[in-house]
Amino acid sequence: MPHFIQHVCQLLYDSQFGTYIRESDYAFSIIESIHVLAITLLVGTIALLDLRMLGVVLRGVSVTRIAHTVFPLTWSGFAVMFVSGFLLFWAEAAKNYGNPAFRIKLVLLLLVGLNPLIFHTTIYRRVHEWEQLELSPWRARAAAIASLSLWSGIIVAGRMIAYF
Questions:
Q1: Could you count the other beta carbons within 10 Å of the beta carbon of residue 103?
Q2: Of 4, 27, 49, 153, whose CB count within 10 A is highest?
Q3: What is the pLDDT of residues 122-136, one digit of tens each?
Q4: How far apart are CA 10 and CA 30, in angstroms?
């Protein structure tokens, strides 16, 4: 399986489209800028909800009101981040295959995806019981801390890709 993945990465890297993105005077930097802006939108909206659950900001606003307000922006940021990230990967797939920072980023992305899945299937199901509290229950706060930590790690690992 690892050889198959490495082969696919090499095919993407050697493709005409991958070469275009990588060798263009502007394509890679434009895509990377879009990727950074999308991450800013995604993580900014997630951080707002996380910080509310930690009782740091917007204590007087219900958790669900913030969630309903920011989720469309969160999903838009996610979609643009995903597409732009895949294009960046396509351009450098063969190099990224063995890059430890890239591998760490992928693991953290998997974990940050599991965090809201677990959160929304457990503690958030009873949000009506605690959404008005200034300080959310410990499990909600733990999910918020995990989210902020994982997203910070993803951003750092993503930046470190260039240095490995």
A1: 15
A2: 49
A3: 999 899 888 888 889
A4: 23
Measured distance CA(137)–CA(130) in Å, rounded? 7
- Show the tokens assigned to 18: 């991958």
For residues 154 and 109, the answer to whether their CB atoms sit within 8 Å is yes
CA-CA distance, 110 to 108, in Å (whole number)? 5
The CA distance from 16 to 46, in Å, is 36
Question: 2 pLDDT exceeds 80?
Answer: no
> Mean pLDDT across the chain, nearest whole number?
94
**Helices and strands of the chain, counted as H and E runs:** 8, 0
The residue behind tokens 């294009």 is: 87
Residue count of the chain, please give it.
164
Which tokens is 105 given?
Answer: 């980023």
pLDDT 10s digits, 82-97:
999 999 999 999 999 9
Distance CA(87)–CA(28), nearest Å, equals 9
Q: HSE-up of 12 (CA within 13 Å, CB side)?
A: 18
Structure tokens at 152: 């910070």
**What is the structure's pLDDT at 38?**
98
